[in-house]
Each structure stands twice: as structure tokens, then as C-alpha cells.
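Module 6 notes. Inverse folding takes a fixed backbone as the condition and produces residue identities as the prediction. Think of it as a translation problem where the source language is geometry and the target language is the twenty amino acids. Below is one complete input and output pair. Work through it position by position during the lab.
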């Protein structure tokens, strides 16, 4: 039996809700060591009071985690270093397209392949010359750094990963097309920072909701390209409300904080999650 290191990694953009409680408890139960990570790369939406509330809510649930807690905003240099590594491998290119540009290109082409995140990027900026890229950057245009998926897959070769619920999975990151790994003003993305953090923290079992199942295809590719350790995965089902929709931060009445204020005990909350 493996001794697993797991992590719960919320974004402090609102108060934790019932779905978060379920995920945190699921994660803690699966690990011999349980880590907490604060995913606060979106500095526009993250708030210190939400970070404080995360600690308070998880402690109220009876959870203990290793310290220090890793906050992504304090490690931007590590993500920038990994981006530089991918750029040196010739796998990144700047994309200057707005959503409107992408939509117009798709309409011109007359078809729109879809992936898990919606319409796939048609590769408009992939063929820009170095001079064109530099001119556009010099003009001050915003840009995203995209992974050249075809090149990356060719370099990495066939890949697979183990999901505890679904078994061995063949990695098919091409379903996402040329994913964005950073933007002009933010030197990382969810995909890049999560993959690096899990490796740096020695996570051996990534537990998260099944809504992130497909993201594991990209993470497996990044692990191969950056020569990182490969964890196992366990994607759990999502809690849904009476309307059949999954819980979200906008559901103020179902935050752990509001339920606690209404007098709900920990035991009663745990019973609701069974």
C-alpha cells in the first residue's frame, strides 16, 4: 500500500462552500500527509480575508495540514524559469489574438473544432516570424504564451497516467490545442503552476473534482517536457444542489462560514456530505 502525499489547493476568490469541504475531506482521507496550497495567481480576484477564512474553515472541519503553506503568488520566479525552459526548447510562441480575432478566424475557416475548454485556438499566430513577434511586442500589444502542441507531443512521445477511479489513461493533450501557459502580465497559468507545485511539494496523489479530469492530459505532457515526477490521480464526483447544479462560490448560503453561523455543527455538516 502506497503512503501518499495529497494536497487541497483552493483559490482565495470567495468563501469555501460545501463542495470545497467535500474535496478537502476527500483529499485528507486519501493522504498519509496532507498539504494545503493557496492558488492565488489571480491577484485581481484573490483577497487576504479569503485566505484567512480558508484556514479558519478547514480548522473547523477538524483538518490539520503541514506548514508552511505554499502560496503561488510567492513563487512566480519558479514558474518563469519553467517557461524559459520551454521557450528554449522551441515550444512556446506569443499569441496576440483577442477573443474577437479568434472568433473571426474561425468564421472565415467555416468550422470550429472543440475541446474540453471550448473552441480550439486555430493557430493564427503560430507562423509569425521572429521579427513580426518582436514588432508586435514592441507596439505594446497584449499577448499570451501558447504551447505548440504538435511539437510538444512529438518531443514527449506516448504518455499515460493512472487514475484511481478510471485506471490507466492514455494522455491525449491534443484535445486542448495550443494551450495558454502564461500571459504578458501573468508569468504562469493554472496548468503550469499546478504541475510545477505538485512536483516541488512531492505530491504523490493528486485528488480533485472530476471537472478537472481532462486537465490531467496537459499536466502529464508538462511533466514529461520538464522532466518532473508523475503522481497518481483520483478525480472525485462533484456535489450538486437540489437544482442539479454543482456548488459554486456564488452560492453564498452554502458557504461553510454561513452554515456555521446558522448553528450547523461539524457532525451535521459531515452527515450532509455523505
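Target side of the pair, the amino acids:
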Amino acid at each position: 500500500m502506497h503512503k501518499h502525499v495529497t494536497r487541497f489547493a483552493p483559490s482565495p476568490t470567495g468563501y469555501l462552500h460545501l463542495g470545497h469541504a467535500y474535496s478537502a475531506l476527500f483529499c485528507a482521507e486519501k493522504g498519509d500527509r496532507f498539504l494545503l496550497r493557496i492558488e492565488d495567481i489571480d491577484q485581481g480576484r484573490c483577497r487576504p480575508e479569503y485566505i484567512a477564512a480558508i484556514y479558519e474553515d478547514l480548522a473547523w472541519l477538524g483538518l490539520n495540514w503541514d506548514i508552511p503553506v505554499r502560496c503561488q503568488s510567492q513563487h512566480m520566479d519558479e514558474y518563469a524559469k519553467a517557461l524559459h525552459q520551454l521557450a528554449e526548447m522551441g515550444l512556446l510562441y506569443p499569441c496576440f489574438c483577442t477573443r474577437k480575432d479568434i472568433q473571426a478566424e474561425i468564421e472565415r475557416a467555416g468550422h470550429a473544432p472543440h475541446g474540453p475548454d471550448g473552441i480550439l485556438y486555430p493557430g493564427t499566430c503560430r507562423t509569425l516570424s521572429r521579427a513580426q513577434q518582436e514588432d508586435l511586442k514592441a507596439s505594446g500589444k497584449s499577448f499570451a504564451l501558447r504551447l505548440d502542441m504538435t511539437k510538444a507531443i512529438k518531443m514527449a512521445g506516448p504518455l499515460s497516467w493512472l487514475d484511481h477511479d478510471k485506471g490507466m489513461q492514455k494522455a491525449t493533450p491534443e484535445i486542448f490545442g495550443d494551450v495558454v501557459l502564461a500571459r504578458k502580465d501573468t508569468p504562469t497559468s493554472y496548468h503550469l503552476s499546478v504541475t510545477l507545485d505538485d512536483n516541488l511539494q512531492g505530491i504523490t496523489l493528486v485528488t480533485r473534482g472530476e471537472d478537472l479530469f481532462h486537465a490531467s492530459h496537459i499536466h502529464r505532457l508538462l511533466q514529461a517536457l520538464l522532466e518532473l515526477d508523475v503522481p497518481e490521480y483520483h478525480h472525485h464526483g462533484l456535489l450538486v444542489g437540489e437544482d442539479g447544479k454543482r456548488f459554486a462560490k456564488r452560492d453564498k448560503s452554502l458557504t461553510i462560514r454561513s452554515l456555521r453561523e446558522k448553528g450547523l455543527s461539524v457532525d451535521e455538516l459531515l452527515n450532509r456530505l455523505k
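Reference fact for the lab report: The two ends are 25 Å apart (CA to CA).
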